């Protein structure tokens, strides 16, 4: 039994919208109602509960629009987009479930419609990157939309979408006076669901394309551009800061040295010697079999690795997955991170275990910002108290950019 949901995986995913309450993405009663509707049900019951709630919000939004009530419609649409995203997450997997496709399409439609109703008009983007076009948005500072302002580029991780990062981070940053950009990169959001491009370690090439578009916008202060990544995006942001001198500040939430850490920890729990897990691209067959059995035994691990991880990285076997994630490392490049860098470390986030090592290795001005369970912010990405994270991080950005 989790905080609200009977099933641990459902609780992990179904409590995300609690983080969006301060920013209009949900109310506690709505999340509680969804949890009660799911009860002891399976992933299909979970999907139906959230999808039904999202459909209801979507219908109410269209009624409000028909009556000319733009503010109500906008708020309802943002909630609907968040609820559709929450609905389909347990259905992740390379054989893409038709319900996931439909819910993602509805999420996108609701989010796009909501963005078109913002008072400070957001601009939809198609970012050219190699042979693809990455969908995204430029969201101007709510307080000074037409002024030359600093820009924060937000980077998602494994399973966050543009709806999620907008509600978790962008609303607060825009209200504080920052221009913002969000996008789906390879292995994320629409790029994942449509099967366009898998996740890749060389995120600097992705941000290069994003920056090239950002620097065409006349209201962006080219000397004050920050990248901010949450979850795996924290690792991707650090890599970007190491490789692109146009980045003037970096926020890693949390500081992740490599993707190998959690799998190496699992190996240690299973009694595997550290040297046997040192190189994940070359793990012995007997160790692979041991890991495989442990993952299959744990429903949440199965979802994280075999459903989400395999899909995001475009692989079919654990050996191939380990080989792919071995490429996501800061080895040999941390000394090149010279811009002001903020590294968060939530008390109970396993991905944050390497935050102190990252902090020690960064060469530029740096801040290690811990978040504690006593403040309700000790879980991954501080989802139990996201507004605390946003206040502290944006205060830091204010200071760095002398705003």
State the main characteristics.
Rossmann fold, 14% strand, 8-stranded mixed β-sheet, 403 residues, de novo design (two linked rop proteins), 47% helix, alpha/beta, single chain, 15 helices, hydrolase activity
Distance between the termini: 45 Å
- How many domains in all? 3
Instruction: Output the radius of gyration.
Output: 20 Å
- CATH class descriptor of the largest domain: Alpha Beta
CATH homology superfamily of the largest domain: Alpha/Beta hydrolase fold, catalytic domain
The helix/strand class is alpha/beta
Shape: globular
Find the CATH topology of the largest domain.
Rossmann fold
In helices, the fraction of residues equals 40-55%
> Total helix count?
15
**Based on the structure given, which CATH architecture of the largest domain is correct?**
3-Layer(aba) Sandwich
* Poorly predicted segments: none
Strand content: 5-15%
Strands of the largest sheet, in order across it? 1-2-4-3-5-6-7-8
Succession of helices and strands: HHHHHEEEHEHHEHEHHHHEHEH
Largest sheet: number of strands, sense, barrel closure: 8 strands, mixed
The tally of strands reads: 8
Average pLDDT over all residues: 97
Family: Belongs to the AB hydrolase superfamily. FUS2 hydrolase family.
Domain AB hydrolase-1: 152-354
Protein name: Alpha/beta fold hydrolase
GO molecular function: hydrolase activity
